[in-house]
Amino acid sequence: MGFAHNNVLHGNHFHKDWQRRVRTWFDQPGRKLRRRTARKVKAATLGVRPLTHLRPAVRGQTVRYNRKLREGRGFTLAELKEAGINRKEARGVGIVVDHRRRNLSEEGKALNVERLKAYKAKLIVFPRKAAKPKKGDSVGDDLKAETTRAALPLPEPYVHEPPRKITDEERSFKAYRTLRIARANARYEGIRKVRTAKEEEEANKKK
Fold first, then answer.
1. How far apart are CA 108 and CA 3, in angstroms?
2. Residues 6+ apart with CB under 8 A from 89
3. Is 199 a residue whose pLDDT tops 60?
4. Which tens digit of pLDDT belongs to each residue from 124-169?
5. DSSP tally for the chain: helices H, then strands E
6. pTM for the complete prediction?
7. How far apart are CA 50 and CA 46, in angstroms?
8. d(Cα 110, Cα 82) in Å, to the nearest integer?
9. Are residues 91 and 136 in contact, defined by beta-carbon separation less than 8 angstroms?
10. Residue 96 — φ and ψ, nearest 5°?
């Protein structure tokens, strides 16, 4: 290896012993089996409890994803109150509570309240002592009802309509123009209010 002219000197390292630093993955099948066994053990210890906690149905962020429904972090305090569930009680029966989240629409709130009520209707709370059930524990035939560990599925994001003919009213409706006018009205609302107030004031002065 020769060096000529004003060039950078080579910094080649040929004695790194790379064979000792190779990352292998020979334990993959063993790890897979270990994880599977751990899941079985966990499921057995949970008994008849649901495999996952109940979470709210929320819309995805931004215009790109807001048509999709997904599971959120936790239910709001307003949703729990409307469903008639105490926040401490909720945490004890597998319902996740998020005190930071706020309801921004009545439709979203109603959807999650229905979700909570459906969960509550299916819920079976086994008493610690069968002879002495506490307040909120299931009793009688409820304890013999069939149990499921599957999570409550998310509702459909939108109602599918059967195909139909476009009406004349829909055909003549100018969606883009309507949106632009509504946007302009919202933008200039404050300025227009100030202008009308000034005009009224001037008219009163002239009187």
1. 72
2. 136
3. yes
4. 777 777 777 777 677 776 777 777 777 889 998 888 889 999 999 9
5. 7, 2
6. 0.61
7. 8
8. 9
9. no
10. -85, 135
